[in-house]
Amino acid sequence: MSKSKKVLARQNEMPVKKRSTKTGLPPGVLIHIGEKKAELAKITILDFDENQFEEKETRTIEECFPFKDKPTIT
After folding, report:
1. Average pLDDT, whole number, for the chain?
2. Higher pLDDT, 10 or 38
3. β-bridge partners, 44
4. What are the CA-CA distances from residue 2 to residues 13, 14, 15, 18 (Å)?
5. What pLDDT is recorded for position 5?
6. Quick one: average pLDDT of 40-49?
7. 3 state SS for the chain
8. CA-based nearest residue to 52, from 24, 74, 69, 19
9. CB-hemisphere CA count at 13 Å for 67?
10. What tens digit of pLDDT does each residue of 2-13 get?
11. What does residue 6 show for φ and ψ, rounded to 5 degrees?
């Protein structure tokens, strides 16, 4: 087959369709189709009682542990 006939043969072929990522999943399963964004979590700690107020931002849960046993409201 000549080169020009091969090109014409490819043009007449049906395009290959990609298989859906939802194939085989139960109906109603949510699939994220947008751009995936990875943002860092931000934790705001509010600790107070009748005499004092403290607000602190953190990114780790470990910084919250000291407030667990305090008698103040956190």
Report:
1. 81
2. 38
3. 57
4. 17, 21, 22, 30
5. 55
6. 92
7. CCHHHHHHHHHHCCCCCCCCCCCCCCCCCCCCCCCCCCCCCCEEEEEECCCCEEEEEECCHHHHHHHCCCCCEC
8. 74
9. 18
10. 555 555 556 666
11. -65, -45
Q: Between vectors from CA 52 to CA 49 and to CA 55, what angle results, nearest 5°? A: 95
Residue 20 has pLDDT above 80, yes or no: no
Q: Which residue has the higher pLDDT, 10 or 36?
A: 36
* pTM for this prediction: 0.47
Question: What is the spatial distance between Cα 55 and Cα 23, in angstroms, rounded to a whole number?
Answer: 48
All structural domains of the chain with their residue ranges? 40-74
Report residue 68 as tokens: 């667990």
Of 48, 74, 44, 68, nearest to 56 (Cα)? 44
